[in-house]
């Protein structure tokens, strides 16, 4: 209660902006995930690794737009490429060469992708990939995992408010449970067309998949002829060739998005030559998939620049090392202070859970008390560290050592201040 009261006192302009917004947007927002009771902080601007709220407070941006802001807020390559693209016109209504440049970089980086199609968001990439896979197999069932998040209309929380989901013929199974998936896939047999999985549960708690789990999915789907899709929309930033490269497990299809176009809206899906060939318009019975902005000139040009010049395999690899190091330090801080909690994640993505023992699926994660997570969130905001309300952080390339030290001291002061009740 005290932390909430001080939050309300610190953000009068956000409160005003929220009240105005609520007149025109349900609950004052167009992204449910950004709502925070009684009102969310409104952001005025961002630069490098920092953002400023409407009341003028500066934060170290340790969220980086839920992983999409991998490059920070004013990356010179992104800004320079946008300026160049602007000079050539925005919506050209025809094919542009940057599409293929961007696509080639994706094919070169992610082992499962032989051909690509672009979309405007990760959700769209997943919807399209699932539809393509069902069409390819001529089957109807889609396997998803408890706690999975594949987009606004493909959201499978283990508790909480109901999502507005696309209607699919679904089979849900627990994450990281090798026996359950083997049994379910065998039982479904030739009814099952698609298995879609995040190589690390994202919104479900930043919980990495075990290699054995992904390997079992690979083996069982291949046996029954179902299409295995890795949703690497978050995880492709965790290792130079995504988690498929890290584990050496190649799915049939992969979806991408988030940071891929330097913070502009983007999605992409791709995969095996024969599955993607369904979209080849030179073929008589090809699948038609259009989209006015699917090859928008800003996204295509910036995407190519991001992959070739900024989010290089080397940069991704170094950021993962920094993320792993920060996670170790933060866990050391919690342990040293006797707090019953832990940071999960992999590489540059971290999330706090107020629960001990190993966390292997979304059910384990919900045992972490929501009010403790809110307390953590409010404390981090007060200390000038911007994170997700659910306790998730994602590092950007723009964060300095000093910024990461600030994150660590904010966690330290959290443990100091609230240690008694944790
Ligand atoms: N898949 C995963 C794993 C995600 O984390 C997200 C977004 O948070 C999506 C898909 C959806 O992407 P978008 O928000 O661009 O539609």
UniProtKB/TrEMBL annotation:
Keywords associated with the record: Pyridoxal phosphate
Pfam entry (one): Aminotran_3
GO MF term set: pyridoxal phosphate binding; transaminase activity
CDD domains: OAT_like
InterPro entries: Aminotrans_3, PyrdxlP-dep_Trfase, PyrdxlP-dep_Trfase_major, PyrdxlP-dep_Trfase_small
Cofactor(s), by name: pyridoxal 5'-phosphate
Superkingdom of this protein's organism: Bacteria
Family: Belongs to the class-III pyridoxal-phosphate-dependent aminotransferase family.
Name used for this protein in its record: Glutamate-1-semialdehyde 2,1-aminomutase
Lineage: Bacteria, Pseudomonadati, Pseudomonadota, Alphaproteobacteria, Hyphomicrobiales
């Amino acid at each position: 209660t005290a932390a909430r009261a001080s939050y309300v006192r610190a953000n009068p302009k956000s409160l005003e902006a929220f009240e105005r917004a609520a007149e025109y947007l349900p609950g004052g927002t167009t992204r449910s995930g950004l709502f925070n009771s009684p009102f969310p902080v409104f952001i005025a601007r961002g630069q490098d690794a920092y953002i400023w709220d409407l009341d003028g407070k500066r934060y170290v941006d340790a969220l980086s737009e839920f992983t999409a802001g991998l490059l920070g807020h004013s990356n010179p390559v992104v800004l320079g490429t946008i300026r160049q693209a602007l000079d050539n016109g925005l919506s050209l209504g025809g094919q542009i060469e940057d599409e293929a440049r961007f696509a080639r970089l994706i094919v070169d980086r992610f082992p499962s992708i032989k051909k690509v199609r672009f979309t405007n968001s990760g959700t769209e990439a997943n919807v399209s990939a699932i539809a393509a896979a069902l069409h390819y197999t001529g089957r109807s069932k889609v396997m998803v995992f408890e706690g999975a998040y594949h987009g606004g209309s493909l959201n499978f929380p283990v508790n909480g408010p109901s999502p507005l989901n696309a209607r699919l013929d679904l089979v849900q199974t627990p994450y990281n449970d090798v026996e359950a998936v083997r049994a379910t896939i065998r039982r479904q047999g030739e009814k099952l067309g698609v298995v879609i999985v995040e190589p690390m549960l994202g919104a479900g708690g930043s919980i990495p998949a075990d290699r054995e789990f992904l390997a079992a999915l690979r083996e069982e789907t291949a046996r029954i002829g179902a299409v295995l899709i890795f949703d690497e929309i978050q995880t492709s930033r965790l290792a130079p060739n995504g988690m498929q490269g890290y584990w050496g497990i190649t799915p049939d299809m992969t979806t991408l998005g988030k940071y891929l176009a330097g913070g502009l809206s983007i999605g992409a899906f791709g995969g095996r030559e024969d599955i993607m060939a369904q979209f080849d318009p030179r073929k008589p019975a090809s699948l038609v998939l259009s989209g006015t902005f699917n090859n928008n000139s800003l996204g295509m040009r910036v995407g190519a620049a991001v992959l070739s010049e900024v989010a290089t395999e080397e940069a991704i690899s170094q950021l993962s090392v920094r993320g792993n190091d920060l996670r170790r330090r933060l866990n050391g801080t919690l342990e040293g202070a006797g707090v019953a909690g832990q940071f999960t994640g992999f590489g540059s993505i971290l999330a706090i859970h107020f629960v001990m023992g190993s966390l292997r699926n979304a059910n384990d994660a919900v045992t972490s008390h929501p009010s403790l997570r809110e307390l953590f969130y409010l404390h981090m905001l007060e200390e000038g560290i911007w994170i997700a309300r659910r306790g998730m952080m994602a590092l950007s390339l723009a964060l300095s050592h000093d910024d990461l030290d600030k994150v660590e001291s904010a966690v330290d002061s959290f443990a100091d201040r609230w240690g008694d009740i944790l």
